[in-house]
């Protein structure tokens, strides 16, 4: 059976929402390659609640990581609560005290009395040095509180500030955990793969793949965002190989990456690999395609320029859209999208040109072209032009996100020869 | 006694560290002005663990908010676990089903069988409409499972994606919670005011105002984002009035809004109020100014067009920058920024023109113009042109955010006559 890990975060600031809990993602990602998963995470306020949270883990967890509550203020009671739970005495550790005194002296600060409380520890605890703060961490190995009950979890008390915790984890906690894992299991740790799939919903991916994948005995997870879903697979090498075959067979053409690159990064990488360039003419997306593409470092080698042709005058002046076309078909039409992309290609000399025109809302819809209607055109130097109509009836920001997602995916499919 | 609120987040992706838990800060900040505090937060994986997490709250919490596990996949069992805990039967709700079917039909998607599971609910549940996804939320009022025990908490089952949860919370959950608070307490609820301050850091605001404000007996909170800080104040009417005087005296010219409008919304509102228009020429910000401005509903009345002139050729061709200027001063220079804004104003006929040119990094820096250097130009029909140089040595996305923030604030100050 796998070692069960739980995480307890103390800190009223976390429960007030003013500080984001970055310990959970940091520790989860650090534990992962060791084959360890966090099975439960709890946040409790500073003070007495930590005692209950600790006691609850008894019999349920093999390893418990605690963050925060090691400082000098009156509500920092993690050290004391752990000792009380395990019926251990706190004693002054002269070496820790000397370290704290040195730290204050070297900064020319006066040491208040409460600061010295951080030098107390149970004799049974192993001290985890803190290179970036006063309070050291403590490791309390599993112990038996009474002959019948289960052992208590291996307990790691860690400081709250991430810039103290993270180096301490890497230097002191990780080696201890690795030793525990080695002692406990002969199985090789599992590997992770994440497939980013664009243009399919979470339910579609699960319906077409879920059961087959679970049949391999792997762990599965989904994470859906607007216009894409991440399929996460955990297993050994053989299982991952078999899973990959299934995933590619069903969704190959929709898989943007299996290395956590996002769509815009993949598009820029593929353009650069081919020495090709892109330009954009955006009406309803208002510059978001250009914004996403230029978020990628090195985009300037693949992205020439963009036009945010919000006003009709700009469509006509800059991209050669014909006023009659707007008059007879409307600015939101396949014809205008095609003229935008065509004019763009001609004007900029780029290899590919993307154009969008649509109705982001909340106003502006008609029965034939309701809010959410969009035309996306893709023209390329060496491939036929295409225009696609879509409907994304949602709020304005999500509409823009869905349209940019669809447009970038059209280009990716063209670049990969998947059209 | 205050109502005790607990939060349960389900989702293996949270425990794997691949997704940050944004529900906790969002909900904590939303609950705060109602006088509600979260006393415990727990994250459990998808699947059976949700059942234990729910049951544990019995007798310890008055209100429990649950996020996630309402979707169509096999590990989405929050709905079913809650019904099992409360001994309630799940029945098909034809109205929810119709809503889901409409949603799929209007997108032209095929509905898989599992999707319909989202239309089941306990008869006792109140349905919380989901404007941005298929699965509705559910509210289960407190009930007694047996005559002796305590009542179960008021239970709110909410969807996992933040863009579904947040609007649902604001539209449906908040009013229900306010009613619960009103029923439970006779104290008048405190009022909240949020000052959005641009161009000052959190520590500066705290240093210049913190003590004075706390002296009024109010509650204070800060929320810092890239390039802005929200100062949150809670108190009664008299206290808020006194606080407002202090805040305006110290930071008046930097306060963008006190009604939660963001900078781009304020800029669009002020432009529209004056019947004026804006156009943009962006090099290093890659379209992000246009993107932010066009996120505002009704932006088309104030925003004419934008140019993302990434390549030098585009700067010369579209905006009349002189090749010699680029040659002698470099594309990242005050001279080029000024020519971009000037050319833009002339070409588009807009009342205001913003131009940016800079080095977003990670490459491209020089000793005189290191990574993070930017020139921002603002030209207006009836006001003198200005060019400002700034240095934002940070990562690429944050650089873009800081530059767009500074540029929009330059325009806001001009519109408000604060220059």
Element layout with pairings:
2 copies of one chain form a homodimer.
Chain A: E1 5-10, H1 12-16, H2 23-31, E2 38-44, H3 49-56, E3 63-67, H4 78-86, E4 90-92, H5 94-106, E5 120-122, E6 126-128, E7 137-140, E8 154-158, H6 162-184, E9 191-198, H7 202-214, E10 219-225, E11 228-235, H8 237-251, E12 255-257, H9 263-274, E13 278-282, H10 288-294, E14 303-308, H11 312-319, H12 323-329, H13 334-348, E15 352-358, E16 373-380, E17 383-391, H14 396-415
Parallel strand pairs in A: 1-2, 1-3, 3-8, 13-14, 13-15
Antiparallel strand pairs in A: 4-5, 6-7, 7-8, 9-11, 9-12, 10-11, 15-16, 16-17
Helix pairs in contact in A: 2-6, 3-4, 7-8, 9-14
Précis, in short:
2 copies of one chain form a homodimer. Chain A has 419 residues and is of the alpha/beta class.
Helix content of chain A: 25-40%
Which strand order does the major sheet of chain A show? 2-1-3-8-7-6
| CATH fold descriptor of the largest domain in chain A | Molybdenum Cofactor Biosythetic Enzyme, Chain A
Radius of gyration of chain A, rounded?
29 Å
Number of strands of chain A: 17
Poorly predicted ranges of chain A: none
Sheet of most strands of chain A: 6 strands, mixed
End-to-end C-alpha gap of chain A = 47 Å
Largest interface: chains, residues each: A-B, 84 and 87 residues
How many domains of chain A? The number is 3
Proportion of strand residues of chain A: 15-25%
Q: Average pLDDT of chain A, to the nearest integer?
A: 92
Number of helices of chain A: 14
Task: Report the CATH superfamily of the largest domain in chain A.
Answer: MoaB/Mog-like domain
């Amino acid at each position: 059976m796998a070692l069960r890990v739980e995480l307890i975060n103390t800190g009223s600031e976390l429960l007030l929402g003013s500080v984001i809990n970055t310990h959970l993602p940091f520790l989860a990602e650090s534990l992962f390659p060791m084959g360890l998963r966090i099975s439960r995470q709890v946040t409790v306020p500073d003070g007495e609640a930590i005692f209950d949270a600790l006691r609850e883990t008894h019999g349920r967890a093999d390893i418990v990581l605690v963050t925060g509550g090691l400082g000098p203020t009156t509500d920092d009671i993690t050290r004391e609560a752990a000792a009380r739970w395990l019926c251990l005495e706190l004693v002054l550790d002269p070496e820790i005290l000397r370290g704290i005194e040195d730290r204050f002296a070297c900064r020319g600060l006066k040491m208040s009395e409460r600061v010295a409380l951080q030098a107390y520890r149970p004799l049974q605890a192993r001290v985890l040095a803190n290179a970036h703060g006063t309070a050291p961490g403590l490791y309390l190995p599993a112990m038996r509180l009474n002959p019948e009950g289960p052992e208590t979890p291996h307990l790691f008390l860690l400081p709250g500030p991430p810039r103290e915790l993270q180096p301490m984890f890497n230097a002191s906690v990780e080696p201890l955990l690795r030793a525990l894992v080695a002692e406990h299991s002969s199985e090789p740790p599992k590997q992770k793969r994440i497939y980013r799939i664009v243009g399919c919903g979470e339910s579609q991916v699960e319906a077409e793949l879920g059961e087959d994948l679970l049949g391999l005995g792997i762990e599965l997870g989904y994470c859906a965002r607007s216009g894409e879903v991440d399929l996460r697979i955990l297993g050994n090498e053989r299982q991952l190989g078999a899973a990959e075959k299934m995933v590619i067979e069903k969704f190959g053409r929709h898989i943007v990456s299996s290395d956590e690159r996002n769509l815009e990064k993949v598009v820029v990488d593929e353009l650069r690999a081919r020495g090709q360039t892109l330009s954009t003419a955006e009406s309803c997306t208002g510059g978001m395609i250009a914004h996403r593409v230029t978020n990628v470092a090195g985009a300037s080698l693949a992205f020439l320029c963009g036009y945010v042709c919000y006003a009709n005058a700009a469509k006509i002046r800059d991209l050669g859209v014909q006023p009659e076309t707007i008059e007879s078909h409307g600015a939101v039409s396949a014809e205008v999208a095609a003229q935008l992309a065509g004019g763009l290609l001609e004007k900029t000399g780029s290899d590919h040109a993307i154009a969008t025109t649509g109705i982001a809302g909340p106003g502006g819809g008609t029965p034939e072209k309701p809010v959410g209607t969009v035309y996306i055109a893709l023209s390329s130097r060496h491939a036929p032009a295409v225009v696609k109509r879509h409907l994304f009836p949602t709020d304005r920001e999500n509409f823009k996100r869905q349209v940019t997602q669809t447009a970038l995916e059209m280009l990716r499919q063209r670049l990969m020869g998947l059209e």
